[in-house]
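[User]
Um, tokens okay?
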Amino acid sequence: MISIKNKTTILVISLVINLILLVFLAGFNVEVADHNNRESIRTLKSKVLVLTGSTSEYKPIQKA
């Protein structure tokens, strides 16, 4: 049986590891977003325009 002290130690260690991973992944996502900023904004605009059915800026590919 694991004692209470060991359980809290394991819990604290796992929380610290999770926080480190969270910060690392968040930072990585921000870097990627900064790197591809223009393209991601363009694709976002086109997706929104397709969803709303507006064809003023973005022309979807015509189906044969």
In short: The two ends are 68 Å apart (CA to CA).
